[in-house]
Write a structure and sequence with these properties.
Its EC number is 3.4.24.-. GO terms for molecular function: hydrolase activity. This is Pyrroloquinoline quinone biosynthesis protein PqqF. This protein has four domains: 2-210, Cytochrome Bc1 Complex, Chain A, domain 1, CATH 3.30.830.10; 240-350 and 357-390, Cytochrome Bc1 Complex, Chain A, domain 1 (2-Layer Sandwich); 415-582, Metalloenzyme, LuxS/M16 peptidase-like (Cytochrome Bc1 Complex, Chain A, domain 1, 2-Layer Sandwich); 596-760, Cytochrome Bc1 Complex, Chain A, domain 1. It is globular, with a radius of gyration of 27 Å. Helix 1 (45-52) packs across helix 4 (115-133), helix 3 runs parallel beside helix 7 (199-210) and helix 19 (619-640) crosses helix 20. The protein contains 24 helices and 20 strands. The protein has a six-stranded mixed sheet with strand order 1-2-6-3-5-4, sandwiched between helices. Strands 10, 11, 12, 13, 14 and 15 form a six-stranded mixed sheet that branches. Strands 16-20-17-19-18 form a five-stranded mixed sheet, with helices on both faces. The relative contact order is 0.10. By secondary structure, the protein is α+β, with helices and mostly antiparallel strands.
Length: 778
């Protein structure tokens, strides 16, 4: 990779990154202004302005503005307002990059939202506020922030709602315009471009489209009042310890130092803090983050989720003792290891992550002299001599692994080596899925989850994804990343799956974070598709013999993707160790008792998911239908009706089942009303349907392997494998997409809700036609 920095004549700072390995491109803009820079009279003004940018502008109406444009290209786009910064970012295939940059810069330089649009968007902000107010984790964080001075903006309200954003007020409109003019000018912004293009090409794009911003000079953002951190003004929750660390005079480089500290605090290997807590069977989960960091000021939060028997005061004492140990440790070797970790992260990062890091001035690198000085500033308060026998972690072997020579080994039954992802991408994926029918499977899965957790954490540090998931009677292991590291991780994972350590049998199950209604429904959806298995779990003791019996009767299938032929023998030898009986698994049939399923949710907003399965052989038709329906669905339900901020429609492949997934979370409409709105949108779309060759071509282009994310290619091939396809081909899919007719689309839309599965947040009766049949698929 190569990088360049420049400043345009109008004052815009630009960073460019040429990364030949990338298949997609990304752009990010950081504006050095956020919620704390907005006038005190209008809480939420900065967040509100962030939303307004996406509502179209004089050059690009909303249907062709950045969000719709990126969605049509199969990319991703978002924005985020923080205390002192606001970020806008997107990722698209290379062919769409210039159009995305133009739209991004144009929308920030020349926003245009009339009062009617503003009023509608204010209701979306209000819906977000309601969801935030009902989220326990968000409320917990808000309560913790009351530990700072009442004069500090951290203790205030900045998200905005219906009452803090008086759109008709002329003074509010003047403040909105003034905020944009003051901060959304070139001197206050950084544009970052990342892609496989040469630096000269990226520079030309930045100069052409970055020139649209008004000239300006950097503005020094006013310093915040002192934190004056006091003892937490909220009671410590049972099973949780929250520790706040406040700093006022940190040297430059604090953000890098905080990331370094997070890396080693989160290390679970022997000798560290988390290992000590786990050895005592106290810890269930840990997180460390900066609740606020600006200039020389920072507020850090360490959150310990503990079991009922854990002494919270001793946990905090150990935390502070470890920080004292680190303060006096020789950090030279640790920073060298951190450099290896950062290099691994940089090589694994996608275009979007690289662009966002560049725009925020946080590239993947070891601590420089400034960062080391800032780290000493973070550790300076911990002056006592460490009492525990802490030690620094050793070098991670997964950061430097290679393939060993293995004799020729035949491919095990049940395994396919997919050619979908060329080995030149240097990204390997291994999928393994078991069908387990044991009544003890849920309890045994939790044992194995605990056994794998340290390996998952080690793999993550080496930029390897190791995922262990379950869906009713289906267990799945997925490992992706650098091919040599993937093989090493899977080898260790299989050993743990066969023979967990003694302590893993007594590990606690842990507690899962609270989810908003729509996310909870999404989590439940796969179980309803493959068929749920109701009934209480057996209460007998479980041990190694029960696991051995489960593996003996389990059937499994697997797929590898992205490996060279030279390493196939090593892969085959590895996969010969998979426990269970290899071979094609039996078909999965959804056996939900009816099309309308009530999922118990906490009191609050309503949510509805509708999964509309695609008939066999109609993947291309349903993909095009999802592609074309996405805009009208979002426009009607999110923009015009303001049903809520969580509104989406997209094609999904779940456990080998392809379907169109519609989802809405709403503070005001119940599932029956949401469903009626969904049906009306689809009916209107069907009535106005015309042929659109441009849409077909745009969608087909998204399934060109050189333009697809490596993980997306592998997942598509795996889902096709689960669906029963022996030789799925992206070329074939593209040809099928280009051949879809308007008549096929119309037929699919008219029958979209036939055989659909509905997951709702509240029990409903009499909503569906009497002819509606239960969901099932083979």
């Amino acid at each position: 990779m190569s990088c360049a920095h420049l400043t345009l004549p109008n004052g815009l700072h630009v960073t460019l990154r040429h990364a030949p390995r990338l298949k997609r491109c990304a752009a990010a803009v950081r504006v050095r202004a956020g919620s704390h820079d907005a006038p005190n009279a209008w809480p939420g003004l900065a967040h509100f302005l962030e939303h307004l940018f996406f509502l179209g502008n004089p050059r690009f109406a909303i249907d062709d503005a950045l969000m719709r444009y990126v969605q049509r290209q199969g990319g991703q786009v978002n924005a985020s307002t923080r205390e002192r910064t606001t970020d806008f970012f997107f990722e698209v295939p290379a062919a769409a990059f210039e159009g995305g940059i133009e739209r991004l810069c144009e929308m920030l330089a020349n926003p245009q939202a009339d009062r009617a649009q503003q009023l509608r968007e204010r209701e979306v902000i209000h819906a977000e506020f309601i969801a935030w107010a009902r989220n326990p984790e968000a409320q917990r964080q808000h309560a913790l922030l009351q530990s700072v001075s009442a004069q500090h903006p951290l203790s205030g309200f900045h998200a905005g709602n219906r009452y803090s954003l008086p759109v008709p007020d002329a003074a509010f409109q003047s403040a909105l315009q003034a905020f944009h003019q003051r901060y959304y000018q070139a001197g206050q912004m950084t544009l970052s471009l990342v892609g496989p293009q040469p630096l000269a090409t990226l520079e030309a794009l930045a100069m052409q489209y970055g020139a649209v911003f008004a000239p300006g000079q950097p503005i020094e953002q006013g310093p915040a009042p002192a934190l004056q951190l006091r003892a937490a003004r909220v009671e410590q929750l049972p099973g949780q310890r929250d520790v706040l660390l406040g700093y006022e005079r940190l040297p430059a480089g604090a953000a890098q130092a905080i990331a370094f500290l997070d890396t080693w605090l989160s290390d679970t290997r022997p000798g560290g803090l988390l290992a000590a807590l786990r050895e005592r069977h106290w810890l269930e989960d840990f997180s460390f983050s900066a609740l606020h960091q600006f200039a020389a000021q920072a507020l850090l939060h360490a959150r310990f989720k503990l079991n009922d028997a854990a002494p919270a005061d001793q946990v905090e004492d150990l935390f502070r003792d470890w920080l004292s140990f680190l303060r006096d440790a020789d950090l030279t070797a640790l920073n060298s290891e951190y450099a290896r970790i950062q290099q691994s992260r940089a090589l694994a990062a996608g275009a979007l992550e690289l662009a966002r890091r560049d725009s925020s001035g946080q590239p993947f690198s070891a601590l420089d002299a400034q960062g080391l000085a800032a780290l000493q500033g973070l550790l300076e308060p911990f002056t006592e001599q460490a009492r525990q026998p802490w030690r620094l972690p050793p070098a991670e072997p997964l950061l430097a692994v290679g393939f060993s020579d293995v004799p020729a080994t035949p491919t095990p039954a049940g395994v396919i080596h997919s050619p979908a992802l060329p080995a030149v991408r240097q990204y390997g994926v291994i999928y393994l899925r078991w069908q387990v029918r044991s009544a003890l499977r849920a309890r045994l899965w939790r044992v194995l989850e605990g056994a794998l957790r340290p390996l998952v954490e080690r793999a993550t540090r080496a930029s390897v994804e190791l995922q262990w998931s379950e869906c009713e009677h289906l267990w799945q292991l997925r490992c992706a990343g650098s091919p040599p590291a993937v093989v090493a991780v899977v080898e260790q994972a299989l050993a743990l799956l066969r023979l967990p350590a003694a302590q893993d049998w007594s590990a606690g199950s842990g507690t899962e974070p609270a989810l908003i209604p729509i996310r909870l429904l999404l989590k439940q959806l796969p179980g309803y598709i493959v068929g749920r298995a109701p009934g209480p779990l057996p209460t007998c003791l479980i041990a190694q013999p029960e696991l051995d019996a489960l593996w003996q009767n389990a059937r499994w299938q697997g797929m590898t993707c992205g490996f060279t032929e030279a390493v196939q023998p090593a892969l085959n030898a590895l996969l010969a160790q998979v426990p269970g009986q290899p071979g094609m698994a039996e078909p999965i049939t959804g056996d939900a008792t009816g099309p309308w399923q009530h999922v118990p949710l906490p009191e609050g907003e309503h949510a509805l998911l509708v999964f509309c399965p695609a008939p066999p052989g109609s993947e291309a038709v349903y993909r095009l239908l999802a592609h074309r329906l996405q805009g009208p669905f979002y426009q009607r339900l999110r923009v015009e009706l303001q049903l809520g901020y969580a509104v989406f429609s997209a094609l999904r492949q779940v456990q080998g089942h392809t379907g169109l997934l519609l989802g809405v979370q709403s503070p005001k409409a119940d599932p029956a009303q949401i469903l009626e709105h969904m049906r009306c949108v689809v009916a209107g779309f069907t009535h106005d349907l015309t042929d659109d060759a441009e849409a077909r071509q745009a969608l087909a282009a998204q399934f060109h392997e050189p333009d697809m994310g490596n993980a997306d290619v592998a997942e598509w091939a795996w889902q096709a494998r689960l669906a029963g396809s022996d030789a799925p081909s992206l070329d074939t899919l593209r040809q099928q997409l280009l051949a879809v007719t308007a008549q096929q689309l119309e037929h699919a839309a008219r029958h979209l809700f036939d055989n659909a599965l509905y997951l709702a947040s509240a029990a409903q009766g009499g909503l569906l036609p009497a002819t509606q049949q239960p969901f099932s698929q083979v």
